[in-house]
Amino acid sequence: MGSLRAIPSLASGGNDRWSRDSSSTNEQSSSETGNPTPLGGSSIGRVRLEFPPDFLWGTAAAAHQVEGDNRNSDWWAWEQHPDSPLTEPSGSAIEHYQRYADDIALLAGLDLPVYRFSTEWARIEPSEGVFDPEAIAHYRDMAEAVRNAGMTPMVTLNHFTLPVWLAARGGWVAREAPALLARYSTKVAEELGDLVDWYCTINEPGNVAFGGYLGALDWPPGTKTLAAWDAAIDGLRAGMVTSRAAVKEARPEAKVGATHAMIEWEYNDAARPLVEYLRTQLEDRFLDASAEDDFIGVQTYTRIAVNAPGIAAPLTRALVGSASVRKTVLPRLIRFAIRMGERGMPNTRTTDMGYEYRPGAIAATVRRAHELYPDKDILVTEHGIATTTDEERIEFIRDGLSALHALLADGVPLRGYLHWSAFDNFEWALGYGMRFGLIDVDRSTQVRTPKPSARYLGDIARDNALEI
Ligand code: BGC
User: What is the pLDDT of residues 74-98, one digit of tens each?
Assistant: First the structure.
């Protein structure tokens, strides 16, 4: 397992430094079932949860969501299409491409020391095999600015978007896609050289395949077949491996891993075959391809509970058991289920994305990643909430972190927590209405204003402890 150091003595019974007060353990927080709980108040009875000394704290963003004018990418083309299913185009986004220096200074001032950002393949390699020195210099400058601010850059090589020339060849179903990703990864790792020690290869490959190739999330390229889904899964799995190998070859000392979308799944027996099939396609096939990664990046936003009536058991078994039924019925069923899900869940507190409000879901998924890879370090590379009520974001961070903290006492080698997202940004199919940022961005003026949640997380990072 790579060069990451395991957190010392977490599992030792005598060291209760990471354990929590018995009054504040694992049960579902009352805040997950009802209204936001009040924050602040007296410190009497408070518990201080300390994190390991070298715990990584920070935030994450992705090029297309913040930079603006990403004109050579498949997402830009998808946005411009007359029949685009997207809410709105990304346009100039939050002009991070121009404003990155001030943005990084702002993050440094907030004591959020790790900045995970992505390099944009479509800018770096605007035509096949031709690398743009200006784009490369730009990302070097960014990495340098992060380091000069005393922070740590973490670079994602592929966060959803592809250059249009690759999309024209089928994107992830093109046989040569993994080798092309590797060539670009080599270039980035060589050019960013000694500035970057942490690389994420492909971001959420499961969602890329599901969202774009099965057509479940209205993402490009918009194919809607099981065959395209399977082919994209194969391409992405191979891409994870070739990209990691390319970076390790160029920078053997770098820590490299994919970042996985994981959901806290709950299901009854009747739903089991269906959910297990879905989880395999969405998560396990990719987790499997991370076997040689230095770390597992876990990204979780919610829980999905599927309880089918007993009478449906033979149906769900048949659905996943027969290739022909699967081919015709399953894609439609999944798209239907997503549309139903988007209509909201009665009696459940939800986020602006329509997800169940479930900050502690991240602990369930980190635990699962740990069970699959007991010896690997784990990083939470995304965790966040779309809400216009910042107090709710604070509550989400607090409850997510306290659930994660409980894992440390169990010896789970959790190395860090990066919040999604640093800034309000372009939320893919749903546009700018979704507010994930710790820092508010007024797009009419491009003025940035840190929200209280940014200071809240910055204080936790500085203290390396959470008070609840
Ligand atoms: C993605 C981000 C996205 C976030 C919130 C993750 O799936 O990596 O790009 O904005 O979730 O939906």
Answer: 999 999 999 999 999 999 999 999 9
Write out the two tokens for 232: 């994209």
Q: How far is it, in rounded angstroms, from Cα 330 to Cα 281?
A: 12
Q: How many structural domains are present in the chain?
A: 1
Main-chain phi, psi angles of 350, to 5 degrees:
-125, 160
Q: What is the mean pLDDT of the chain?
A: 90
Atom of ligand 1 nearest to the CA of 261: 7
> Domain containing 95: what range?
49-261+293-299+376-467
- Asked if 95 and 68 touch (Cβ cutoff 8 Å), the reply is yes
Q: What pLDDT digit, counting tens, does each position of 341-352 carry? A: 555 577 889 999
Please tell me the predicted confidence (pLDDT) of residue 332. Answer: 73
CA dihedral 273, 278, 279, 281 (to 10 degrees): 120
Q: Cβ < 6 Å from ligand 1: which residues? A: 62, 65, 203-204, 207, 261, 299, 382, 420, 427, 436
Q: What is the DSSP string of 170-201?
A: TGGGSTTHHHHHHHHHHHHHHHHGGG--EEEE
User: Residue 411: is its pLDDT beyond 60?
Assistant: yes
- Give distance in angstroms: CA of 15 to centre of ligand 1: 36
Asked if the structure places residue 21 within a domain, the reply is: no
**pLDDT given at position 334:** 74
Residue 141 lies in a domain: yes
Q: Classify residue 30: in a domain, yes or no.
A: no
Find the CATH number of the domain harbouring 150. 3.20.20.80
Which residue of 86, 90, 204 sits with most ligand 1 atoms within 8 Å of its CB, as the best mutation to test the pocket?
A: 204
